[in-house]
Amino acid sequence: MESGPSAECCGESQAAPAVGRAETGMAILPTEAAVYTTIDQFRRDFRETTEGTLKVLRALTDESLSQAVVPGGRTLGRIAWHLVGTLTEMPAHAGLPVDPSVAEAPVPTRADEVVSTYQRAVVACEQAVVHAWSDADLLGEIGMYGETWSRARVLAVLMAHEVHHRGQMTVLMRQAGLRVPGVMGPAEEEWAAMGMPVQP
């Protein structure tokens, strides 16, 4: 699996340079004005975000993992597994005490393995951040993928990366015929269950 958020995150060529470098022109990286100022801010956001992602992952089936963006392109399983792996790869790259080896593991063929591995990665990531970094540490700068980021920016990018891929997954899930759970609001089926028209 690739290291760090790559241009492949957005479905482009697998040989594209890392996201965040000026030549990619991608907007996945938050500006310094959009980053965290305290660990508690990150922790609250992280828990809410990962709970939403877990809802999406639990809706996957073994068969749906092979749903591709385009013929021969990235599959739903690979996007999900990249999301899982980045939860430990990026923190490890930032010097946090987590095992990034899952990022190099093959994409599972079982959806429940994706879910269970994600749950372990969530715990490992949160504990590493909470125990290794303080609020003051967030202002410090470190090398990340050929650039210099503040630690606060690392956490903001991690969250932006998560939401970015989760959105990709929900589109592929529809294409695979799965019911998509509401994350940032009710999904189509949830509006219907409430007896309301689908909202624009």
In short:
The protein has 200 residues and is mainly α. Helix content is 46%, strand content 4%. It has a single domain (17-193), classed as dinb family like domain (Four Helix Bundle (Hemerythrin (Met), subunit A)), CATH 1.20.120.
Please tell me about this protein's structure.
The chain is globular and about 45 Å long. The chain contains five helices and two strands, in the order αααββαα. The chain has helices at 39-58, 76-93, 111-132, 151-175, 188-193; strands at residues 141-144, 147-150. The longest helix has 25 residues, at 151-175. Helix 1 runs antiparallel to helix 3 and helix 1 (39-58) packs parallel to helix 4. It has a two-stranded antiparallel ribbon with strand order 1-2. It is 46% helix and 4% strand.
What attributes characterize this protein structure?
200 residues; globular; 2 strands
Catalogue the unreliable spans.
Answer: 6-28
Gross morphology: globular
What's the β-strand tally?
2
Gyration radius from CA atoms, angstroms: 17 Å
Roughly how many Å apart are the termini?
36 Å
Round the mean pLDDT to the nearest integer and report it: 82
- In the CATH hierarchy, the third-tier topology is known as Four Helix Bundle (Hemerythrin (Met), subunit A)
**N-to-C SSE series?**
HHHEEHH
Percent in strands? under 5%
> Which structural category fits the helices and strands?
mainly alpha
- The top-level CATH class is Mainly Alpha
CATH superfamily: dinb family like domain
